[in-house]
Amino acid sequence: MFSKAMATSVFNPCSIITTSRAQPKSSSSRPSQLLSFLHSNNPAGPIVDLKFSAAACSWGCQYDSKQSLSRCLAANITSSALKTAESSRETSTLLAAEGVSSSGTRPTILVSEKLGEAGLQLLRSFGDVDCSYDLSPEQLCEKISSCDALIVRSGTKVTRQVLEAAKGRLKVVGRAGVGIDNVDLQAATEFGCLVVNAPTANTVAAAEHGIALIAAMARNVAQADASMKAGKWQRSKYVGVSLVGKTLAVMGFGKVGSEVARRAKGLGMHVIAHDPYAPADKARAIGVDLVSFDQAISTADFISLHMPLTATTSKIFNDDTFGKMKKGVRIVNVARGGVIDEEALVRALDSGKVAQAALDVFTEEPPAKDSKLVQHENVTVTPHLGASTKEAQEGVAIEIAEAVVGALKGELSATAVNAPMVPQEVMTELAPYVVLAEKLGRLAVQLVAGGRGIKSVKVVYQSARDPDDLDTRLLRAMITKGIIEPISSSFINLVNADFTAKEKGLRISEERVVVDTSPEFPVHSIQVLISNVDSKFASAVSENGEISIEGRVKYGVPHLTRVGSFEVDVSLEGNLILCRQIDQPGMIGQVGNILGQGNINVSFMSVGRTVRRNKAIMAIGVDEEPDKEALRKIGTVPAIEEFVFLNL
Ligand SMILES: NC(=O)c1ccc[n+]([C@@H]2O[C@H](COP(=O)([O-])OP(=O)(O)OC[C@H]3O[C@@H](n4cnc5c(N)ncnc54)[C@H](O)[C@@H]3O)[C@@H](O)[C@H]2O)c1
Ligand SMILES: O=C(O)[C@H](O)COP(=O)(O)O
């Protein structure tokens, strides 16, 4: 029956499941009766008025749908209304590009450590920049609630307390450098705060520093310098070792590690590397053998550390691993102090197992003045200078300023650390579907009768495209947002959507069905199904017992096209009244009259039925929220069997 095999992949082991299948040409495209009472602000195109909610953002702007889409990624937004406000849109788009909202406020960007001038200039052109260095943790917590962005280097600890103290306003943390071990990523994700870093601009600087330390250590440069400055001339004391022909083990063959390897090869060293995730061909291209951890540390004369500090790498160099090394090994660390058990290193130095160490980074920075490690005569130290060249600092400052400004504009930075990467072209293409996805989520959750929590949501995407060509992460995030936000105080964006769903015990499964429609459009329809719940509107429940609604984008505008087993066609804007009634003449007039008496403007109306003169569903788009009296009167129309008011 299906032309493609079912494929299942797991995005998130706990809450997200995706499947895909192909489907024969759908017979469900029978047009419903469309009775369109077109209203003057019927949207003509995909222009969306998006406003930040007060909790998450202090400035709001109007954007076209492309911008609105990217906004949802980094900030808390609601696609509250569709409209064609051409003139105000132009003005506000312009303002947004400069970081100024229509209300005249600019984002506040706190820079808590020294940043290159070029980066600061870029930031100042977009927002109000507060350079406050050396803040205590308390001072940082105090300041942060009035900031939209925070830029740090390795000296500022962005803890859960800091993120909590931000009270939802902080949208992005920019790490002006590579290592993000000083940022509580889990907490940032929970609070929907994007974390971006500047991963490339200091690579060469760090690699050069690594090489400098290897050479300086091998030739006792620092010790000899100190000795001479103390008035001594100790030529025999500082006889060094040569590098040529020695084996260097590069531990962590990423950006810095591979640059160190390249340079060490130039010095005539034999280079091996250990990195469980590095591609072998990349190593081969530089003439480096990838080996196991034990093989690397047991055969090397020099060991240079270039892995990130993570739960796995914390103190990975300890008594046990030092024990496996060659006697007289030399160790260089320009990665993170925490990957070494520093007390174990002191023991290894004292015993002579490790002949020398050269360290740029420390578990505590700065280390204690009486640190045995720092004071050890066989240890060369620098105060975390790996990234500290003029060139690298300018580069890092520009790289992070661009990423932070982009994030504040709502663009997804290519260097986002805690959000999935969605390429710009995908974002642009999915723009109107993002609005549809959120509206369907909002609508579906309002159809659930109280009392039982929602545990399981299934989303079915019909598309003419191959399932691999459809990136649904954005759509899933927006459906999650639509479902969760109306019933909780959480705000959802691409950063925290999956996390929040999981935290709330909401399992979202996805299915992609290949249909025979135009592949020009990425999605033909989106169906949202909620199982194991009762509905306020029994007609929304499908034959399978699930609340089921389906929508499509038509001419750039999201439409509701199916409720339960009834086809409807109503533009998703403003508010919606769904009525199930006996299919007979005069129904539209009766309900229309009641709404008219209540001064409620009808924007769209659509009737869908399964069998003629049997049951029908009337979907009525209304601009205003009907008062209790109008709703009561609708309930008294004899042919109306049930109805529900839904706020979109
Ligand atoms: N001293 C400084 O000023 C300075 C400057 C830049 C970078 N750094 C640090 O250097 C390190 C490397 O930076 P990068 O830009 O090369 O990062 P990177 O992400 O490009 O490379 C890190 C590599 O480590 C590997 N890795 C992860 N776990 C590993 C493990 N258990 N064993 C071996 N390899 C493992 C990864 O696969 C990756 O290839 C980071 O810790 C960074 O913070 C320090
Ligand atoms: O991870 C990094 O990029 C380096 O450790 C640089 O840190 P810094 O910005 O504090 O110099």
From TrEMBL:
Keyword Cell cycle applies: no
GO molecular function, one term: phosphoglycerate dehydrogenase activity
Principal EC category: oxidoreductase
InterPro entries attached to this UniProt entry: ACT-like_dom_sf, ACT_dom, Ado_hCys_hydrolase_NAD-bd, ASB_dom_sf, D-isomer_2_OHA_DH_cat_dom, D-isomer_DH_CS, D-isomer_DH_CS1, D-isomer_DH_NAD-bd
Listed Pfam families: 2-Hacid_dh, 2-Hacid_dh_C, ACT, PGDH_inter
Highest taxon in the source lineage: Eukaryota
Places the protein is found: Plastid, Chloroplast
Keywords: Amino-acid biosynthesis, Chloroplast, NAD, Oxidoreductase, Plastid, Serine biosynthesis, Transit peptide
Main location: plastid
Gene Ontology BP terms: L-serine biosynthetic process
ACT domain ranges (all copies): 576-648
Listed pathway(s): Amino-acid biosynthesis; L-serine biosynthesis; L-serine from 3-phospho-D-glycerate: step 1/3
EC assignment: 1.1.1.95
Keyword GTP-binding listed: no
Record field: catalytic activity: (2R)-3-phosphoglycerate + NAD(+) = 3-phosphooxypyruvate + NADH + H(+)
GO cellular component annotations of the record: chloroplast stroma
Family: Belongs to the D-isomer specific 2-hydroxyacid dehydrogenase family.
Protein name: D-3-phosphoglycerate dehydrogenase
